[in-house]
Amino acid sequence: MYSVYTLLLTLVLLVWSPSIILRALRSPYYREGWRERLGCYPKPLLSRLQAVQPVWIHAVSVGEVGAASVLANLWTARRPTLPLLVSTVTGTGREVARRTFPQAAAVVYFPIDLPMIVHRAIATVRPRLILLTETEIWPNFLYECAASRIPVAIINGRISERSFSRYCLVRPFIRRVLQRVDLFCMQTGTDAKRILALGASPERVHVVGNLKVDAAPHADASSLAEQWRRELHIEAEIPILVAGSTHAGEEEVLLQVFGRLRGEFPDLLLILAPRHPERVTQVETMVADYGLTAVRRSALAQGRGDAKEVILVDTVGELSTLYAVGSISFVGGSLIPRGGHNLLEPALYGRPILFGPHMENFAEASAYLIEWGAAIQVSDAADLTRQLAILLRDPAARESMGQAAMAALAAHHGACERTVALLEKFVL
């Protein structure tokens, strides 16, 4: 089965390679880090890593980096000499990881999951322990770790309904792959049941909670909101809707809803953060097509322009704290069938949360926040308009939802402590 997987992955890469090459020719963004993706690292980095045998933490992109950093900060505080290597898949993830992990020996790209490449990467880095964040199951990488007797743990483990359905199609193979993981620290009981159904050994599976719940806010929410208002040139008392991690097909709906709401709330400001920053130019054109005026976050940072009707977030790693300035938060990937995105960031700053009907990837978290009265799930654009209008008219209701969000998170603190306790045996 491993040979079949490797063959299929090779064919996918061959088919995909013309697109990759074309993108690389057009943008340096896609040219960065290809030697690292092939398991080749700079000599100065190798000499540092081989001398210390780091704990290798892998986080795909921005969201996973945030979760992993919570764990790393606690562990580093307790073991200041514990060396870390951090890897990501995306460029945005790498950019955020470089800022988030100042204690790391290096931040690199994760190797392509082909036998020769992962063998080269693991043999040169020689990690003492590998931590894979959320749902990172790479068969050849895990096979090589087992062959090299390097323990592997999945932290903040999560198996969405969609991923579970796909893995079930190749359950016999996935069962063999999961036997090479030494520890599963899963977010919820549902995640644990799914990983067990796929073949994980029961004695290795633990429900510890979500690491992101233990993330400390960067500052008091009210002072952070004031700081953002100053930086974005937003006058006090102006109501703000922060729409984060939006996808194509959602911005159109949000702009329509925003236009309707401004009839009753003419001062309402929209902070719009597309999930993929490279789409900002496209969204900017869309804003103009709706007769609205937009300014980019980067332009405001450089002192060019003032806050307009729409602020477009074209920077990386700021969305989580931008939720603090919002009167209301909307979490994207949910008006269209993308499964939703992280709800904990706006909850962390005590902001009321709205999202669409498609939250399959965060079903348990969304149901939990709804139960606590911290979030509202809307069915469509009309429902979104109605619910936003109700909240904009009622500051007390917004305050109540925000307090409920913080209380809901406080009830689930401790995931980081539980995870570190389980990991300690691997680094004694």
UniProtKB/TrEMBL annotation:
Pathway: Bacterial outer membrane biogenesis; LPS core biosynthesis. GO terms for cellular component: plasma membrane. Residues 33-214 form the 3-deoxy-D-manno-octulosonic-acid transferase N-terminal domain. The keyword Transferase applies. It is a single-pass membrane protein. It comes from the Bacteria. It catalyses: lipid IVA (E. coli) + CMP-3-deoxy-beta-D-manno-octulosonate = alpha-Kdo-(2->6)-lipid IVA (E. coli) + CMP + H(+). Keywords: Cell membrane, Lipopolysaccharide biosynthesis, Membrane, Transferase. GO terms for molecular function: Kdo transferase activity. Belongs to the glycosyltransferase group 1 family. Glycosyltransferase 30 subfamily. This is 3-deoxy-D-manno-octulosonic acid transferase.
